[in-house]
Every structure is written in structure tokens, then in C-alpha cells.
Amino acid sequence: MKTLHRVAAGLACLAAVPVWTLTSADSASAADPTTLTSGFYVNPNSSPAAWVAAHPTDSRAGSIQSNIASRPIARWFGTGSTGSAVASYVGQADSHDKLPVLVAYNLPGRDACGGESGGGAGSVAEYKAWISTFAAAVADRPAVVVIEPDALGDFGCMSQTKINERLDMLTYATRVFQQKAPNTWAYLDGGNAGWTSAATMADRLAAAGVANVRGFSVNVSNYYSTGASLTYANAVKADLGGTARFVIDTSRNGNGSNGEWCNPPGRKLGTPPQTGGGADMLLWVKTPGNSDGKCGIAPTVAAGVFSPDIAVRLINGT
């Protein structure tokens, strides 16, 4: 039940965008980014799009292009210097009047219990500088940001000291998006329907500053059906007092979950990205076709690497 992504390295220089500090004077009210744009941004350089471009004569290319690469898929940012890369990506979307979906995934010791997507920033201070730069790079342009998948479900193998550090970093992240990215809807990740009880997740979200942002995300990189995810998210929302909003990752939940989290067989693409659907939005946060790790139907494909075989199986539901 973990999020498994290998985030691309080699991004542009951090120094190109200054690190911001938090002050009360910087606080701003979030606008609705969906009303400031004309639909979701489709990343022309996503991993499925890049694979199609590199394999135009492959018999699978047409299906992957029409079913996956042409869809709006979140772009993940992690280890590496991301200030200029974030600014460039959001700027590209803005130039097309489209709404980009981004994922911040760089907590120290991320995927602590799953282990397939370990890494992240080297210290608390490094993380805070990184996430501050991220938010400042988005600035006042419309965006949707999912903050740190796995972060609040992954407590089972962590010490209380590490948990407290993580809650502090996440609270800082929510504040910096609140104050530096006024036209962003940010969602703190809230795990999935099969991982942590709704009451426990609500307590963790509250401790991590969910009240500072739009709300929370569920089912990121997992397979639980939209119905199951709605039930779980609404229970979390109720435990939070009923005001937090949420988004659902529907990228691979068309056939629901079979209880496995790492490249299980028989899964299928879910509802394409849209606003509404019982949530703020149904999004493709995980890139369909990217491996969860060396496991399941892709025992030789590392986490985050695109596999056309996985992609076709998701298209066909096999």
C-alpha cells in the first residue's frame, strides 16, 4: 500500500529561485485555480509520451498514446534542485491557460516502510528550504499540488522522534503553500482506504496542518475503487469536522484493489481526470505504466520506470 515512484533527477538549479521565509504578512487567500484555467494541462514530456515518441512503430504505441499519454497526468518533483524546473513547468501550463497537477515528494526517509522509493532530502532544514522554493516557484499561477504521498500512512516503522519531525515538516509545507502560492489548491496526502483507519488518518492530517490548505488526497498510487475511496475520504473529512476537501487518484483503480499494492495483475485505468465526481477532482496522480517496484507483473522493472507492458495491461484490464 505504498506509493512507489522514482523521481527524476537532474533538474534545474535551485539557486535560480530564492528560498522564501515565512512571515504572517505573506498570508493570502487561495483562489479557485479551476476557474482561472481552461482544463488540465497535459504534459508532453510525461514518461508514456516520451516512450511513444521513441517507439513510433511499436504496435502498442497508438493505444498508449490515446489511452494514457494524451491524458493529464501529475508531474512528480523530488530529490534534486527543483526551483527552476517547477517554475518552468507551471509556466508552460499557464502559457496554455491550463491547470498543472504537481506532486511534492522529497521528505527525508520517504517510503520509510515500503522501501522501493526511498530517498528524499538529507535533513529537516534541507527539506524546508526545498519545499519553500517549490511553493515560491509556483507563485501566483494556478496549480494543484499533492503534498508528500505516503507521509502520514508510513508511521509503522518510524520512531516517535522521526514522526514528530515529519509532522513539523508537513506543517511547514502547508504553511508555505498557503502563503506563497495563493492560486494553488494544495492537498496533504491521506493514504488510502486499505492502509490506515479514517479516524487515525484524520488525527494525523490535523497534526500535519491540513487546515492550512485545501484538503487531502487519497488513493495515490493505489488501486482502491472510486467508491471505496469516496467512502474512506468522506469518513476522514467527517472526522476532521467536515470542512476539508479532497481529491482521489483514479489512475489505476478501474477494477478496484485485489489487496496487493505492487504491480498487481488484473488492474485497469480509472476515470480520466475531471473536476467533481464526488470529490474536488478525480486525478491521475500516479503515471499509468510506471512500475511500483521490482514486483508483481514487472519483477525486473524498477520503481518509477515506464513499462509499455504494464501500460497495455492497464488499458486492457489484464
List the helices and strands and how they pair.
Elements: H1 47-54, H2 61-69, E1 75-77, H3 83-95, E2 101-104, H4 124-138, E3 143-147, H5 160-180, E4 184-189, H6 198-207, E5 215-218, H7 226-239, E6 245-249, E7 274-275, E8 281-283, H8 308-316
Parallel strand pairs: 1-2, 2-3, 3-4, 4-5, 5-6, 6-8
Antiparallel strand pairs: 7-8
Helix pairs in contact: 1-2, 2-8, 3-4, 4-5, 6-7
Signal peptide: 1-30
Family: Belongs to the glycosyl hydrolase family 6.
Protein name: Glucanase
CATH superfamily: 1, 4-beta cellobiohydrolase
Number of helices: 8
Structural class: alpha/beta
User: What portion of residues is helical?
Assistant: 25-40%
What is the N-to-C succession of helices and strands? HHEHEHEHEHEHEEEH
Report how far apart the termini are.
20 Å
- Count the beta strands: 8
Question: Strands of the largest sheet, in order across it?
Answer: 1-2-3-4-5-6-8-7
Q: What is the highest CATH level, the class?
A: Alpha Beta
CATH architecture: Alpha-Beta Barrel
* CATH topology label: TIM Barrel
Q: Outline, from the CA principal axes?
A: globular
The mean pLDDT is 90
The major β-sheet equals: 8 strands, mixed
Unreliable stretches, pLDDT < 50, 5 or more residues? 1-28
Strand content: 5-15%
Radius of gyration: 18 Å
Overall number of domains: 1
Keywords: Carbohydrate metabolism, Cellulose degradation, Disulfide bond, Glycosidase, Hydrolase, Polysaccharide degradation, Signal
Enzyme class: hydrolase
EC number: 3.2.1.-
Protein name: Glucanase
